[in-house]
Amino acid sequence: MIMHALRRLAAPFALAFTLYAPLQSAHADLDKLKQGGILKVAVYNDFAPFSNRESGIDVDFAQALAGKLGLKVHLLPFDAGEELGDDLRNMVWKGHYLGYGPADVLMHVPVDPRLMNANKQVKIFAPYYHENVRLVRDVRKIPVYESIDSLAGKKVGVEKVSISAMVLLGEQDGKFRDNVKIYPTAAEALDKLKAGELDAVLANRSEIESVIRQDPNFAVSEATFQRLPREGWVVGLAVRNGDVELAKALQAATNEMASSGELAQIFAKHGVSLARP
User: pLDDT, tens digit, for every residue of 114-133?
Assistant: First the structure.
């Protein structure tokens, strides 16, 4: 989806969060949630390994966060909008015009100063994962990977409308374009790689790890492209800007899970190594 491509372009800057709302109303908001016993959490549809058909890393993480607050989770899965601002409006601070949402918290939001400045109605905080684009290759077909030129003449899979597709198709004036194979999802491209129909796949590290699962026939390498943010990007949580006490509680729960190793265990359950911001 277009939004997924835009999300993967976000820069990895952690934010020390500032309190904007009056303390009294903030306490009231958290108290109201605890009285109801439910934490409404928005997660993206079709976004494996983080959230896909109400399962994945973000789903398990959301359930654990709610448990730390003494609440139960009510998931609000939704399709990504054209822009991140649409998702923040529909699922965090206003609600969709069709009556769906808003949630109390949205998972997997880029912790990016530009996004924060453009969306003052929300608070983006609690960075919990550092994502990167990587190249995974079949070592039987590409024994050595030294640079992008190693992909010349090789069949490389990418997800449609993703940052991986954008950078690979445009690299060196389209030098590799004829051999790029486009699939609906990165998972489908990775399945084709494992089946021997591709030589390599360019995708997010989390997507690669969740499918390849340390298979010795495949190697993961850093891939440098002119238009690709080499440092990757960081994702965190988003709540309404006035929900200060909820943000503080979620931040504390995230910190606790990161320190105890519980967060890493959730990632490992889905075959992904936790890269902390």
Answer: 999 999 999 999 999 999 99
CA angle, corner 7, sides to 203 and 68, nearest 5? 100
133-222 and 2-130+233-269 share a CATH fold = yes
Query: Which sign does the torsion angle of CA 214, 218, 222, 227 carry?
Result: negative
**Domain locations in the chain as residue ranges:** 2-130+233-269, 133-222
Core vs surface per residue 170-183: b (16+ CB within 10 A) or e: ebeeeebeebbeeb
CA angle 252-14-243, nearest 5°? 50
pLDDT single digits (tens) 17-52: 333 333 334 455 888 999 999 999 999 999 999 999
Measure the CA–CA gap between 109 and 41, rounded to whole angstroms.
Answer: 13
Four-residue CA torsion sign, 260, 266, 272, 275: negative
CATH topology of domain 133-222: D-Maltodextrin-Binding Protein; domain 2 (3.40.190)
- Tell me, yes or no, if the pTM score tops 0.90: no
Q: Which CATH superfamily is domain 2-130+233-269 in?
A: Periplasmic binding protein-like II (3.40.190.10)
As given in the structure block, the two tokens for residue 105 are 């918290």
Task: Return phi, psi of residue 65, to 5°.
Answer: -60, -45
Report the alpha-carbon angle 177-179-180, nearest 5: 65
Parallel/antiparallel/unpaired status of strands 105-110 and 38-44? parallel
